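Give me structure tokens for this 183-residue protein.
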Amino acid sequence: MNKLYIAAQICSLAAQRVANELGLTPELIHYNVFDKTTSNDDNFAEVNPLGYVPVLVLDNADQDRISETIVLTSYLAAQHPQANLIPTHGTLERVHFDQLLAFLATEIAQKHIPLMRKLFTEIEHLQHLMAYVARVEARPSAQKALKTRRSCWRFITRKPPENSRRVINGLPFIRRPFFVCWN
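Here you go.
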């Protein structure tokens, strides 16, 4: 059985969401980013010397490891094309999809890591989170990327029941996103 190392309340949960969408049942191992322990007492430094989650340890002869949220989620989705979670390699839609993922990883996530660490405090967590989301949504670069990538946006979301659809900044906000986790 594949092992999926994730941590609570961070982007590594995107890998778990994709696995759930695909009906996969990897062994979930939770990594505590503060005290560097895992739920099964594995030495995480041996799993990923960089100390990052998510990590998928494949159940093959070499016990191959896949890390980085974008790479891991894209790998899982590409292994199950019938689920239609990701555009096909070699298409312009896939290029736009990869551009959006790279933008989110480099322009949004990386520049906000110090703030995200602050959000992990239990006190006033929701207020900090909502203020963070509002600041990100207000960034001109984020608004421009979301407006110019509407064709790509549909690939990172799954269509919800009609009653759960909302509109934020003129774009449909869907409660079960593939990669972008606002709620």
